[in-house]
Amino acid sequence: MPSQTLASRVTRMRESPSVAAAQRVRELKAQGRAILDLTVGEPDFDTPEHIKRAAVAAMNDGLTKYTPVNGIPALREAISKRLHLKTGLDYDSSRITIGGGAKQVIFLALMATVEAGVEVIVPSPYWVSYPDMVAAHDGTPVVVDCPESEQFLLTPERLEAAITPATRWVILNTPSNPTGAIYTAHQLARLAEVLDRHPQVHVLSDEIYDEITYFDAPVPNLTAVAPHLRDRVFLTNGVSKSYAMTGWRLGYGVGNPELVGAINKLQSQSSSCPSSISQAAAAEALSGDQSFVTESVASYRRRRDVTFELLDEIEGLKPVLPQGAFYLFVGCADLIGARTPDGTVLSSDQDVVLYLLDHASVATIQGSAYGADGYFRVSFATSEDTLRAAAAAISTAVSALTR
Ligand code: PLP
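# pyridoxal-5'-phosphate complex -> structure
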């Protein structure tokens, strides 16, 4: 078969490491291996019944055609209300765009604004997709290390130092995947002061985990803290994580009308609109009964505490207690240099992850995939039994290492 010539934008991109890890787990399971899978980036709960019913009703009512590119009115209204509660500001249709997941909305926002010569500041640890999405559009991801000693959060000093005349965006993700860190209102206000000095810099605020938080207060929001920046903040969110709807593929973005219009144009030429049925389901998710969110977060909190406690007892591992999302970032730098029972030396976090997969049958993802060497990510969006079994297996495997 003659080989197809691929565009350089594709060859520049890596496959998503989390998708690759999930694929590896599927392959091992297909070979008959019992794997304790802690790689998953999605809730293990099913979508709540009232949301499914809304989808069925939409189908029965004939909502099975193309919709306006910026969505059905019920969904736009639900998003607008949600955003008003969060920021205190009004969002009319010209400020709202929807897509097949927050991921697609972020991709289109970058497609609309990034080209050769444009820099995008990506604080690290980062969600795996940001740098590759920037590179896909010929831009330069400027990765800024945000160490654990600074709670993995971007400081005003580091932001200021990373900005150049070519900077178009800084990406903030709060709560963060992979660390679960959350910016306080004060920290956001200090970042806003830096942004005030650099009007060419916009903020892509990825808030996909904002309902999953272990505080009793809402996650602070940059636009609420600094409303004068509203036209420079593109906020993205969706229903995947909060409502266990990853497969429905529905996300949204809110921002200034010029950017939203450009994204809608790209959407109109690529997918026309996301699924009409998913839109109806998402409208119900955002505006209907919210008890699922409360109950699932209570369950994640228990799982977080159990997993943290068990991993913290293992010598050589240093889990970081997350404030939001459903991931634990675990320091494993102390294991690097150790020798496995078959004599291999662990020389990176990737080696640690492979060792845990081979010797403990526990699947995790190396921190270097998130731009932070010396860690691995554990998802606790799985049953407590799985988490306990995984922690026990990790403990046995780690104690078999020698120095
Ligand atoms: N942003 C972050 C930080 C994520 O972790 C994910 C999913 O893993 C997304 C965005 C994408 O979510 P969606 O399912 O809405 O595309």
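# post-check
Residues 49-287 form a domain with the Aspartate Aminotransferase; domain 2 fold (CATH 3.40.640.10).
The pocket of pyridoxal-5'-phosphate is lined by residues 41, 101-103, 127, 173, 177, 206, 208, 238, 240, 246, 251 (CB under 6 Å).
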